[in-house]
């Protein structure tokens, strides 16, 4: 692919795979979206580079059109639907991996509309909070057996990832053979939940807990979800949160994960 003046963002092959997916999930209106490919490439360029919207090269069209499209589609859940669609019929569930990471928030991520809430409630709603790593967001993912993201959830940076795990399990299209997580997911209640749905847990105990079964030949595959985070964080807008709202930041994660699926 090229923009109008030769800026390479997506190849023709990538766009040929992405275009029908976007056409299926995007909101349709009476006036067709002029040069949709250019707008998507502008959105992609901005998030991969972590730049301001106004810094988008003019060859990729008006910056405001890309910004408006991305924010509107985030509010409508388009990016989440795009991620759901790209993985239809392709999810490998011999294993499922749970993992969370703290993502530092840029100072520009603060300042979402108050909407009648106090600062603590706003931070909780917008998934922003202070942890040892500073002001940021806790992002948790559930990945399939090949290390591809199936779904995400967000919380303030100081949140523990274990409470988010049951909802992520519910996002899978079927029951996995194994659910693999690190010690952050060590909980008898959560292991029981995994057994109840028909899967087997591979979660090592905390050092103060009684020993539990955690086969190394399963657990050693956890590097696949760590590699997933490494790939996603190649996008500067994933490695550092610039978005003011949780909805928009979730959109960035889902868009990055969608392109990761297309490369797999």
TrEMBL record:
NCBIfam families: transpos_IS5_3 (NF033580). InterPro entries: IS402-like_dom (IPR025161), Tnp_DDE_dom (IPR025668). Residues 117-129 have a biased composition (Basic and acidic residues). This is IS5/IS1182 family transposase. Residues 108-131 are annotated as: Disordered. Residues 179-263 form the Transposase DDE domain. It comes from the Bacteria.
């Amino acid at each position: 692919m090229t923009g109008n003046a030769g800026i390479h963002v997506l190849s023709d092959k990538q766009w040929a795979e992405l275009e029908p997916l976007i056409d299926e999930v995007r909101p349709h209106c009476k006036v067709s979206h002029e040069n949709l490919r250019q707008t998507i490439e502008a959105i992609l360029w901005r998030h991969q580079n972590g730049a301001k919207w106004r810094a988008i090269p003019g060859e990729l069209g008006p910056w405001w059109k890309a910004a408006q499209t991305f924010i509107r589609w985030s509010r409508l859940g388009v990016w989440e639907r795009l991620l759901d669609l790209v993985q239809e019929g392709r999810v490998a569930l011999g294993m499922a991996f749970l993992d969370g990471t703290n993502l530092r928030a840029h100072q520009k991520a603060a300042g979402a509309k108050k909407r009648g809430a106090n600062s603590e409630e706003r931070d909780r709603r917008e998934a922003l909070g202070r942890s040892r790593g500073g002001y940021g967001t806790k992002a948790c993912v559930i990945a399939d057996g090949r290390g591809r993201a199936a779904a995400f959830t967000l919380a303030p940076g100081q949140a523990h990832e274990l409470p988010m795990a049951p909802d992520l399990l519910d996002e899978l299209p079927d029951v996995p053979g194994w659910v693999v997580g690190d010690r952050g997911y060590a909980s008898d209640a959560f292991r029981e939940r995994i057994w109840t749905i028909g899967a087997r847990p591979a979660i090592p105990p905390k050092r103060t807990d009684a020993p539990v079964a955690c086969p190394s030949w399963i657990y050693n595959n956890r590097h696949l979800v760590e590699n997933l985070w490494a790939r996603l964080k190649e996008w500067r807008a994933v490695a550092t949160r610039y978005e003011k709202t949780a909805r928009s930041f979730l959109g960035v994660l889902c868009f990055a994960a969608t392109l990761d699926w297309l490369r797999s």
